[in-house]
Design goal:
The chain is an alpha+beta fold. The strands form two sheets. Strands 1, 2, 3, 4, 5 and 6 form a six-stranded mixed beta sheet that branches. A hairpin with a 7-residue loop joins β8 and β9. The longest helix is centred in the last third of the chain and has 15 residues. It is globular and about 60 Å long. It comes from Rubricella aquisinus. InterPro entries: NMN_biosyn, NUDIX_hydrolase-like_dom_sf, WH-like_DNA-bd_sf, WH_DNA-bd_sf, WHD_NrtR. This is NrtR DNA-binding winged helix domain-containing protein. Pfam families: WHD_NrtR (PF21906).
Amino acid sequence: MTRPIRVELSAVLVGLAGAGRETTPYVLTQPGPDLPTRAFDPDEHRTLELSLRDWVEGTTGLRLGFVEQLYTFGDSAREARIAARAAHTVSIGYLAIVSMQAERKPGSDWRPWGQFFPWEDRRDGIPQMLEDDLLPRLRKVNRGASFQDRVRLAFGLDGYPWRDELVLERYELLYGAGLVAEHFTDRGADIPEELPAFGRALPVDHRRILATGIGRLRAKLKYRPVLFELMADTFTLGDLQDAAEAVTGQSLHKQNFRRMITKSGLIEPTGSLSQRHAGRPAAEYRFAREAEWDRRLATVRFGGARR
């Protein structure tokens, strides 16, 4: 007899907070922590996305901007530790962007996504834990040349470039090598006491869903200006660069970035000067109203501004 299927929506809700080098990408979690997840009720909502938007707005007070479906997560192993159920749960992952400048309902639990993937922020160089501990362990994994080739490619070693969008690939390598807690909990096994905490674990496969969402957002920046969805109504060029660096986890060349963004036609000066930061006042910009359609279609290549 075929088991019935229960459909859930799991949301990777991303927002930015902080200023300057302290600009930080955050994701919304539920107590646990866990990604926000709810069952889809077709009698209540006509589409999956409408269900997601209504649910997020009702629980957080935030209206979603950019929303994109990620992937369907339904492996049988995702419920290995959960008691037998009448239905097998399939989770449809979504990436959604919110403005953290908006007023939020109390109780919203926003966490820096670096808690879950501490090796992904390279703005100040290669993270020490990656160089001193994680990579040496990966290099010792004896799974043949193809595995080590994947390690070099995913982590930008031995002449390969670091590709910021390969978040899921890096996590999957750690998972397969038994270097993250979920490798053991998914199998109903105890986590070895000697295993360092390489990022905060999430229940079921939610860290995999989160990695998929972060990788999708970073990849999206290469051909769609979704970065503006994370910004306040007005911003300086410095604010915009800080946001781009926070999301990609990489430092960008200041002059190249400013030249690229001012030539894109996507922003326009407001005529005002910002007093938000220390130092000389900086010109404020906003998204160009006449570029509303381009906002969805135009290309902004941050790669050309990398150091």
